[in-house]
Amino acid sequence: MALLDLQPSTSLLFCLVPLLFLFFIKFNKTITNTLLSSNSSKIPRSYPLIGSYFSILANHDQRIKWISDIILSTPNLTFTLIRPLNFHTIFTANPSNVQHMLKTNFQVYQKGHNSNTTLKDFLSNGIFNVDGDIWKYQRQVASHEFNTRSLRKFVETVVDTELSERLIPILATAAANKTVLDFQDILQRFAFDNICKIAFGYDPGYLLPSLPEAEFAVAFEDAVRLSTERFILPFPLIWKMKRALNIGSEKKLRFAVEQVREFAKEIVREKQRELKDKSSLDSADLLSRFLSTGHSDENFVTDIVISFILAGRDTTSAALTWFFWLISKHPEVESQILKEIGEKSESLLLYDEVKNMIYTHASLCESMRFYPPVPMDTKEATKDDILPDGTFVKKGNRVTYHPYAMGRVEKVWGKDWAEFRPERWLDKDEVTGNWTFVSKDAYTYPVFQAGPRVCLGKEMAFLQMKRVVAGVLRRFKVVPVVEQGAEPVFISYLTAKMKEVFPVTIEERI
């Protein structure tokens, strides 16, 4: 609700409450810590008016793990977090509930007004931020394009070029000079170049040897981070007031979004001019394909492209970052992957060859079980409902399913759930010794979502990741530079990443 729509007394109350909170928190940290330490239950204590705000504040920097630990401590893998002013969010890792949300009662659980409003400035009416007919239309168009053979071939060419001409030479130079690289940054640059070529037919050159600061990439990163921070605030009114006044984080967000959207629009305009001058479509990038089929509305196409960049840049780079960390700690897994790579004929593997890299595929799935690129996803109930485990959902409640927690459920994954073991995804033929991949129920392992909103780019993502793994590991060993026993910190904005950097050295294989 807009501030101007409120009655004067109500407006004053809503303005004062956040200020009172900030005052209370600043001068009562001792009380906060005492209250938290006295609460032995995993489910956070709730108080009148402020709900579980003290616990939310105390666990701000580890909220994914904190919520996961609470979920896993409950008998039905579901609990309700009470936020200030009695706003309820239900968190679940129960596969029956997830199937109910994402498939059985799909029409009830939508992105909803809160999510749409919070991400409106950045994602606008892109596919990840809308419901209903707008979503269906974009889904239908995107589904057709993702299923074309020519797009798959284009993706193969883009990935191969970026791998052979940029990523491999950078790693070779680092190995020769014994320099330390931030491998997370390198993988993000790789993914960003890839998705810009695939989506726009545009090469930002973000992974050139000089590792330049691409203005668009920096603005995009800021837009993702600052948009996410809106969700974390105790009151939406706080960011809405800052936005109206154009101050603080909202001023930075506005600037970042303006850069992203103007840059994307200029590329759309350039592509429209390019297509107008050609009698036939020569380019296979997504933007050309959309425009050539009559989708000429500039804002509509820009929204779609920005959504594709978000999906293509952040998810694959996050998955690969954690994959390389995990195999560095499990040399036996790395040896099995190297054995599989060695059985292939080319240094840059063709689509059909990477498709048959079964053990590598299982290793990636196991890595994403521990560190899903999207560790939480939230829907909003459009009417009263009851989840299969008996949890009542009131209209307007947010319900969040939690892939991070779901990858840690002992009943699903066994007593050895904490072990990184790709073999849990495989069956081995005792006669031939060949592996067969055994997929998991999409509602037990919703890393790529499930139901009508299942990720269209799943096959493309695995293609890219396996080609990177094969191309890198065939020639190099990636060695993390960390103190003994130190573990990187898992954080999440709209998508997950390692906190700060992932420092590594590169060693040539003999």
Automatic annotation (TrEMBL):
Cofactor needs: heme
Q: Does the keyword Iron apply?
A: yes
The record's InterPro entries line, in alphabetical order, gives: Cyt_P450, Cyt_P450_E_grp-I, Cyt_P450_sf
Spell out the Gene3D superfamilies in the cross-references: Cytochrome P450 (1.10.630.10)
Q: Which GO terms describe its molecular function?
A: heme binding; iron ion binding; monooxygenase activity; oxidoreductase activity, acting on paired donors, with incorporation or reduction of molecular oxygen
Residues given in the record as heme binding sites: C455
Which CDD domains does the entry link to? CYP86A
**Pfam families from the xrefs?**
p450
Would the keyword Heme turn up in this protein's UniProt record?
A: yes
State the source organism's domain of life.
Eukaryota
The record's keywords, sorted A to Z, are:
Heme, Iron, Metal-binding, Oxidoreductase
| UniProt-listed PANTHER family | CYTOCHROME P450
Q: Which family does it belong to?
A: Belongs to the cytochrome P450 family.
Q: What is this protein called?
A: Cytochrome P450-dependent fatty acid hydroxylase
Q: Which organism is it from?
A: Nicotiana tabacum
- This chain is encoded by the gene named CYP94A6
